[in-house]
Amino acid sequence: MTANQVTVSATILSAAAGSLVWLSAGARWTLAVVPCALFVRMALNALDGMLAREHGMGSDVGAMLNELGDVVSDVALYLPLAVVPGCSAPLVVMAVVLAALSEMVGILGVQFGGGRRYDGPMGKSDRAAAFGLLSLAFASGAPREAWPHAVMIGIVMLLVVTIFRRAGKALQGGVA
């Protein structure tokens, strides 16, 4: 299996898990699938990088697939939470858009003479942890009063900080 096949597999897994949540209108059992899919996705992301480096499979196509796959996977896994009762659809959409922007700004570091920016506080792994825990809480039947809104507002705020931090470091041409 090639690194690119692993990358595509992670994206397909994310799309399948997100579709399950979306089509079930956020049924509790489908929300339990999200943390599992996130765990496997993160493992596959690590594996594709190791394959590319250690077996000489790195390529421009692979780099593009990796970056696009991350954004598509985020959208596929996180956007369906907008249909979950008790979760604010506008805040979910805002978080998904900001997550994509944070990845775009991270890539721009290369354009300005530095490396790919991975600065936080709400990078890919942090988002996976936050959305995974949120999904797990929903799946476990936790009451859905105000706390999901507070969590989503926190994610949105941390994404804004991440975007500004990455942009600042990218413009300085700093190394990741």
Keywords:
176 residues, mainly alpha, Four Helix Bundle (Hemerythrin (Met), subunit A), 74% helix, 0% strand, globular
The CATH H-level superfamily is CDP-alcohol phosphotransferase transmembrane (TM) domain
Q: Please, how many helices?
A: 7
Name the average pLDDT.
95
The CATH architecture is Up-down Bundle
Please estimate the helix content.
over 70%
Largest sheet: none
Terminal CA distance: 29 Å
CATH class identity: Mainly Alpha
Structural class: mainly alpha
Keywords: Membrane, Transferase, Transmembrane, Transmembrane helix
Transmembrane segments: 146-164
Protein name: CDP-diacylglycerol--glycerol-3-phosphate 3-phosphatidyltransferase
GO molecular function: CDP-diacylglycerol-glycerol-3-phosphate 3-phosphatidyltransferase activity
Structure overview:
By secondary structure, the protein is mainly α. It has 7 helices and no strands. It has a single domain (3-172), classed as CDP-alcohol phosphotransferase transmembrane (TM) domain (Four Helix Bundle (Hemerythrin (Met), subunit A), Up-down Bundle), CATH 1.20.120.1760. Helices cover 74% and strands 0% of the residues. α1 packs antiparallel against α3 (33-54) and α4 (60-78) packs antiparallel against α5 (89-111). It is globular and about 45 Å long. It starts with a helix and ends with a helix. Its EC number is 2.7.8.5.
